[in-house]
Amino acid sequence: MRVRIHTPTGQSATGVLLEIHTGGFYLGSAAGSDLRNRRLVDALGVAVVSVDYRLAPEDPWPAAPDDCETAALWLAEHSDARFGTSRLATIGLSAGSTLAAATLVRLRDRGIPAFEGAVLQCGTFDLSAQTPAGRLIEDEYFLGAYAGAAPDLTNPDISPIFADLEGLPPILMVIGEDDVLFEDNLAMAARLLAADVDVDLRVYPASPHAFTAHPTSMAQAASSGIDVWLRNRLGVGE
Length: 238
Hints:
The protein is α/β, with parallel strands linked by helices. The chain has helices at 34-44, 63-83, 95-110, 132-135, 141-147, 182-194, 217-234, and strands spanning 2-6, 16-20, 47-52, 88-93, 115-121, 171-176, 199-204. It has a seven-stranded mixed β-sheet, sandwiched between helices.
């Protein structure tokens, strides 16, 4: 399994972000996030470790969350020695947010509270089409490609909305009002709140799916908000 690492120039890292890229579980790569990850490095002084997780349909679930968990465990054990800091957070976009949520649940189940926060942008949290929000995307190709031969798509490792969410770290959720996953994100936020997780849900008007990946004024506003939230979580500048 490979990761792609970005580090600050001329200074020690103030924290480390585990970045999980977008692509519907079957497209994309860690290198595809280079520009966004380098911006985070320059804005926050953090190191960013991006996971080149295995892609569907050649490698369906649980390959991708296995790879993300491996990277998270590596950081939990080696971040201090490798980067000079043990302050960790994770950030994902679309499918990357789904995998970030699954990774946090896996680490919680292992009793490893290594991550101090997570930024989940327009994630897919019900891949089973069992909720009204999930049924809006039930015909999407990526659902079957990612799930493969899994017998139950309500498995919390596939659809995090069905997970026991208690004990997760603070989470910032970012979603566009025009995103087909808008209701799915509202439902996930409600589930997190019910589990007593510290959730900051931010809804941006007139914004489609994955809007933060595009050069628009709304994306810039969302990115600035993400920066401030991560600074507070990682103690940047303290």
